[in-house]
Amino acid sequence: MSRVIDRDTPLSDEDRAYLEERGRHGLISQIDRRTGAAGAQNAVPPEGPAPAAEADGMSEDEWNEYVDGLSVDELKAELRERSLSTSGNKEELQQRLLQA
After folding, report:
1. What ranges do the domains of the chain cover?
2. 4: helix, strand or coil
3. How far apart are the two ends of the chain, measured CA to CA in Å?
4. Is residue 51 predicted with pLDDT exceeding 90?
5. pLDDT band at 89; cut points 50, 70, 90
């Protein structure tokens, strides 16, 4: 059975447990940072895009999942932090960030 997780609001205890049971720790970290959940490292205010993600501590799959979950504005913010081009469609932005 699948579950729809809102990535723009703090995780409920049930959603957090669901993701933990499935080993989705990277997604949990991403949501915590994005929503400013208590105890989250690099928490950001909900009104702004997330700062440049730090891949250390994330597996390659978790990093890919993190990048896939970013909006176009968030992708552009991540790329600007790395002084990379922000032109192109969402797929191009994702590929550029994954290669950075």
Report:
1. 13-99
2. coil
3. 35
4. no
5. very high
